[in-house]
Model the fold of this input.
Amino acid sequence: MGKYEPVMAIAGGIGLVSFAFLINKVYKTQNTTSLDEIWLLGNFIAMILNLFYGIVNNAYGIYLPSILFLLGTGYLIYVKLKNKYINKSENK
Done:
């Protein structure tokens, strides 16, 4: 365990709480127009790299927040793609 690993775990927890509000809003409204695809992709890649860093350095406090951020970002990407491509093709 790293010297300041608990601080990283706390930061991840705080980030997850704030991220949960975004996920909840998107879940209720299904509106992702304000979420740019580049931001979603960048966030997804950043969380994969963050998880990789945690695995390589045995920083267990990084695992759970990174995995939850990945799942949340994956959900946002799914809703974005569903609204942008699938719903448009169904309306034709």
User: Anything to note?
Assistant: The chain has three helices and no strands. The two ends are 55 Å apart (CA to CA).
